[in-house]
Amino acid sequence: MQTIRNKTPSAARADDTERARPGPGRDLAPLFAGAATAVAGCGALFAFADSHSPLRGPLTLFFLLVTPAAALGAALRGLEPFGRLLTALAGSVVVNMLVAQGMLAVHRWSVRGGLVAVTVLSALMLLPAVARGLRGTVRRHAPQVADGERSVSVKPTKT
C-alpha cells in the first residue's frame, strides 16, 4: 500500500510561484479561449442560418474542429500540453469522420444534422470532465481528515 502525503506549506508556496508567470503574456490564454469560442459560435450560427457569407465555410470548419477538440482536451488533462493538443485534434478529426460516415451510411446527410451530431457528441465527451471538476470542488470544501486530526478549510465570503 502506498501512502500519499500532502505537500508542506513551503512546497505549496514554491509550486504557486512557479505557476504564476510574470509579464504581460500571462492573461492571454483566457483571451484566446474567448476569441476561439466567439469564432466557433459565429461559424455554427452562419451554418444554421444558411448564410451566404464567404466566411461561412472557414468558420464552420473551425467550429467542427475546435468543438470536439476542446471537449477531448478537457478530458485529457493529465497529458503534457503539446501531447494533449495533438491528441485532441486527432480525436476531433476522428469524431467528424465517424459522424460523416454514419450519416452517409444511413443516407441522412445534411450540414445542419452533422453540426448537431458533432455538438451533441462533444457535449457528451465534456460531461465527465465537468462532473470531475464539480466533484473536486465538493471534495475541496468538505472536512478533511489528516493524521488523525480533523481540519476544516474556511473560504471567506463577500459581504
The largest β sheet comes out as:
2 strands, antiparallel
Give the strand order, joined by hyphens, for the main sheet.
1-2
Query: Helical content, roughly?
Result: 55-70%
The count of β-strands is 2
Beta fraction of the residues? under 5%
Mean of pLDDT: 81
Question: How is this structure best described in words?
Answer:
- This protein has 159 residues and is mainly alpha-helical.
- 68% of the residues lie in helices and 4% in strands.
- The chain has five helices and two strands.
- The chain has helices at 9-19, 28-48, 56-75, 81-105, 111-141; strands spanning 144-146, 149-151.
- Strands 1-2 form a two-stranded antiparallel sheet.
- A hairpin with a 2-residue loop joins strand 1 and strand 2.
- Helix 3 (56-75) packs parallel to helix 5 and helix 4 crosses helix 5.
- The longest helix has 31 residues, at 111-141.
- The chain is globular.
- The model has no long low-confidence stretch (mean pLDDT 81).
SSE map:
Elements lengths: L8 H11 L8 H21 L7 H20 L5 H25 L5 H31 L2 E3 L2 E3 L8
Antiparallel strand pairs: 1-2
In short:
With 159 residues, the chain is mainly alpha-helical.
